[in-house]
């Protein structure tokens, strides 16, 4: 009996520097699991970073390396998945250009994140074609590998629905070339940063995967907890405690329930409670830190792993683009004229 064909998964990350705990629980941890059940393509996407970092593009290479280190250290395996750098596969840009010819402008203007990020990021001029069109480039990234499954959080669901609309429009014009990608909605726990707000690099409140045990202790120990616990004897409510968002992501459920009960009865103090999650984080990322340190000392190996992934991705993308050009009637005889072929 033939083995059932694995579904193709694609997902990616913008290179904005080292990854934090929110990136890990929201995406990376789930990707590692998907490697055993799906045919996975995971890509770092410098062109997407360029849509907001176009005035300082030199940092993108450094940031790409940081993300690559975190991926390999966290368990993304080049023997199981294709790990590659989007901007090294020029076919992405070609497909993006061709899709831009058929995509109505209002489809891009209605993407919620376009206006939301313009409002949130006030220190950068984001009223550019590249920023408006990045969901279209995202579509090209996905469908050029004929991805059937795209793991995303709810904030990206609109982007995948847009990709599905564009695929339907392309297939209606030129024949069925692309499958419609399906969303794999992932639960993205809202992790609080060190200041109690949502964990984010832009807020400067992130706990990074590469942080040392000492740094983890220094960041979590002074975090504000439930403000009702002014004294050790005051009962608290874990659901209102920023630190407890970390417990939900990294502390086993049985221990977490015990801590929640003790918090509500003031049987445990906040410092004791913080110690549990600090120790859980230090233990969970012990092997990660070792692997990251190894790869950091061997940058040529990291780039080699991704170049091998680039070659695999390029081969698939090239085949897809041959099909796209054929479907659109954009294959010309110029190459055959030189050889005398018909």
Describe, in plain words, how this protein is organized in 3D.
The protein is mostly helical and 342 residues long. It folds into two domains: 8-189 and 299-339, 3-Layer(aba) Sandwich (Rossmann fold); 201-288, Tyrosyl-Transfer RNA Synthetase. It contains 16 helices and five strands. It has helices at 21-34, 46-53, 59-74, 91-100, 105-109, 112-120, 129-132, 134-143, 157-174, 213-220, 244-250, 253-264, 270-284, 286-297, 299-328, 334-339, and strands at residues 8-13, 39-44, 81-85, 149-152, 182-185. Strands 1-2-3 form a three-stranded parallel beta sheet. Helix 2 packs across helix 3, helix 3 packs across helix 15 and helix 4 crosses helix 8 (134-143). The longest helix is centred in the last third of the chain and has 30 residues, at 299-328. The protein is elongated. The two termini are 42 Å apart. 36% of the residues are buried. The model has no long low-confidence stretch (mean pLDDT 92).
């Amino acid at each position: 009996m033939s083995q059932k064909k694995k579904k193709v998964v694609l997902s990616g990350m913008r290179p904005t520097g080292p990854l934090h705990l929110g990136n890990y629980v929201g995406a990376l941890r789930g990707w590692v699991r998907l490697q055993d059940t799906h045919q996975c393509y995971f890509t770092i996407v410098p062109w997407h970073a360029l849509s907001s970092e176009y005035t300082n593009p030199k940092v993108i290479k450094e940031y790409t390396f940081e993300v690559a280190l975190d991926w390999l250290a966290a368990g993304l395996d080049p023997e199981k998945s294709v790990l590659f750098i989007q901007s090294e596969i020029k076919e992405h840009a070609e497909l993006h250009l061709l899709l831009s010819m058929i995509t109505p402008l209002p489809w891009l203007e209605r993407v919620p994140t376009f206006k939301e990020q313009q409002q949130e990021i006030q220190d950068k001029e984001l009223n550019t074609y590249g920023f408006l069109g990045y969901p279209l480039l995202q579509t090209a990234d996905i469908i050029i590998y004929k991805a059937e499954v795209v793991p995303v959080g709810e904030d990206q669901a609109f982007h995948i629905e847009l990709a599905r609309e564009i695929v339907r429009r392309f297939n209606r014009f030129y024949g069925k070339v692309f499958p419609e990608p399906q969303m794999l909605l992932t639960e993205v726990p809202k992790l609080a940063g060190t200041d109690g707000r949502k964990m984010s690099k832009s807020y400067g409140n992130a706990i990074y995967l590469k942080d040392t045990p000492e740094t983890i202790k220094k960041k979590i120990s002074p975090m504000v907890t439930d403000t009702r616990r002014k004294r050790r004897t005051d009962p608290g409510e874990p659901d209102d405690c920023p630190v407890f968002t970390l417990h939900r992501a990294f502390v086993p459920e049985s221990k977490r329930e015990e801590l929640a009960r003790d918090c509500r009865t003031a049987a445990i103090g906040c410092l004791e409670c913080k110690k549990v999650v600090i120790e859980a984080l230090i233990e969970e990322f012990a092997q990660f830190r070792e692997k990251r340190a190894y790869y950091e000392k061997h940058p040529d190996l990291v780039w080699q792993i991704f170049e091998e992934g680039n070659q695999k991705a390029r081969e698939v993308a090239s085949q897809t683009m041959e099909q796209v050009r054929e479907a659109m009637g954009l294959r010309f005889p110029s190459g055959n004229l030189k050889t005398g072929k018909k």
